[in-house]
What does this fold into?
Amino acid sequence: MDYGLTGATGKMGREIVNVFRDHSLVLAINSKGEELHGTPRVVVDFSSRAALDRTLAVCARHGAALVVGTTALHDDDFAKLRRYGEVAPVVQSYNFATGVSILKIILREYAPLFGDWDLEIVETHHNKKKDAPSGTAILLRDATGRDCPTHSLRMGGVPGDHAVLFGNDGEVVTFAHRAIARNVFAIGALRAALFTLTAAPGFYTFEDVLKNSRS
Amino acid sequence: MDYGLTGATGKMGREIVNVFRDHSLVLAINSKGEELHGTPRVVVDFSSRAALDRTLAVCARHGAALVVGTTALHDDDFAKLRRYGEVAPVVQSYNFATGVSILKIILREYAPLFGDWDLEIVETHHNKKKDAPSGTAILLRDATGRDCPTHSLRMGGVPGDHAVLFGNDGEVVTFAHRAIARNVFAIGALRAALFTLTAAPGFYTFEDVLKNSRS
Amino acid sequence: MDYGLTGATGKMGREIVNVFRDHSLVLAINSKGEELHGTPRVVVDFSSRAALDRTLAVCARHGAALVVGTTALHDDDFAKLRRYGEVAPVVQSYNFATGVSILKIILREYAPLFGDWDLEIVETHHNKKKDAPSGTAILLRDATGRDCPTHSLRMGGVPGDHAVLFGNDGEVVTFAHRAIARNVFAIGALRAALFTLTAAPGFYTFEDVLKNSRS
Amino acid sequence: MDYGLTGATGKMGREIVNVFRDHSLVLAINSKGEELHGTPRVVVDFSSRAALDRTLAVCARHGAALVVGTTALHDDDFAKLRRYGEVAPVVQSYNFATGVSILKIILREYAPLFGDWDLEIVETHHNKKKDAPSGTAILLRDATGRDCPTHSLRMGGVPGDHAVLFGNDGEVVTFAHRAIARNVFAIGALRAALFTLTAAPGFYTFEDVLKNSRS
It folds into this structure.
């Protein structure tokens, strides 16, 4: 797969280059310009909101699909993405960790079966993390459709653990996710990029990617 | 709820009586006969295959629904249960642990999303347990649709833990179940009994109970 | 071993009778009197402070050792126990769970090695438990000699889990204890009772029992 | 602390440079020669057995202490290290993970208290690891003084988890270690290097370092 990348030299960009190592980086976009070695079929952008217009312009020029993991997008950004989705596949998500997304889907669908069970969430992250509970803990809690006690541990260099626990008198069921390293999101981006190769034009979430790559 | 019970004095029977304590045991069936104090709306049988004919006869006499957790049933037993399902709700399962059944459903549906992840199962039971891996471990493994390494720990008095682990380069996702006590199955039987109060006649599995009590 | 028991018909008393089933209950003491069938070598009392005087009198009459797990003792109770320790072995503790006691010893000795690691404690108990954090969590925290965040989960029927976690940039070390059932304390009482059979007269803690039964 | 490093450009060398970032690398030793910018108080060598003679010669020239994590040393290597230990502190170990070493000490001392409990070990590593069980699992098992079932999971990119579980009828006690990243060993090397600054000349293991840095 020939792909393009916005912000290739940043921390997340380097992770993407590493995870995409079996594919060809033919277009590197940064704030100063573009370096082109071929025609990208998909462009990946995990940089920042400020870069989005340029990224979209480059995609349009090459007819490339887009995978965008930039956070804090505005409503008009989404409007632009949906509009480009009319001509090519666009995958947008704030969380490209495959496991987290699958757990989110499962909890949304199955948490009601645990309606009368106790529910608590425990998350552990490195001690440099400032917010608590983590965004992912909130996302998983929202997926259960209930409010619940949420415990935040801050321990050394832990990349990120989450456990959603349901308990009744006789059983405890746990759904747990552990990030091994920061490359989790790059692995999800690769999955999304491969998905765009065969997808029809459209605006997709990462969940759509997961659901469609099941069969 | 007025209920009947086959084998009320056995170990499982006593668990059921305890868990059903907010309901009225109006009919106790054992190998010697029946003790009747009212009209049961549902009969629960976790005793043995040998008792099934009598249990079915009693159900028919009262027009009662049936919840049956007896193991090692034969084909003709199933035929009888299905036939009685034409006149009243019948719930049959080899495993009435709610959490295990929900995990089974989830794994059957979502394990394909983890198609290229490593998969291993770990189960822990008390050191009196002779078979390994446990029936539940096999059931969960079957639900994933894949074969995988399955580790059996035998530790003291542990009632039964199961963990299904999926791992890739960047993430580990764990689905875990822990039985706190032997009353797990009685709790599931209560759920099934309550389900029969409003269900149409039919032959149901415990999964049907779970799916229908969701809404 | 021929043993006596104060409060044999209470909940804890019945657990003790069950766990001591390979030994002979020759003396049952309750608020109304004593039932005697032999000469006890050790008397076990997990009943209440109010029973202590009678228990001590009975011990003195038979020259029996004493294992006492009664909580909320007063200073003068301790004085009486120490005085009786001059003539027979007395084991007193507020916590007869072997594993908890061993972890307490280990943490007291080794927590200083984790001096610059993050430290957090997580405990999970059934949802009927009113106090948080649990007494055992406090006991383990005290053993570390540090204060730390302590998270209390209240989930269904969980008998009692405790985890003490130390984390630095590269590692997490966890010391965990899980009570499988309420009989934990009875098992510890048995260990203490067996210890008294060969111990010199004296006042002992449960830690002394553990340390001396190692060799 | 001014320190020297053998094999600074290798994978482990780069980890050490990163973890020692608050200290000054004043001497870099590699197969071609030495680059000197000051007088090292301690030299760190995690390279290979072949480099040991040169490393020792450099240490002697500067009167520097030595921290050596090179594996597969021969008896005469140990003889040389002990001899140099007569003039300066030498710390040698095959495993500089602090948590593993502490658990090893604890298990050696306290496993006898769990003499009649069931014992099993579970370890999880990335799926590229060829040997099973892991060297660390064997080391921990040896520390317990018992043989036991040892389960090896190979899952995605897991750096290395170990759990030593003791269970009896009423309790499970778990001693667990999780490596977050490969820098674990470099962190231990830093601890050892700091230890040498105040230690008397002598041949030390990593356990000696841990025990002496407690007070």
Remarks:
- Chain C has a mean pLDDT of 92.
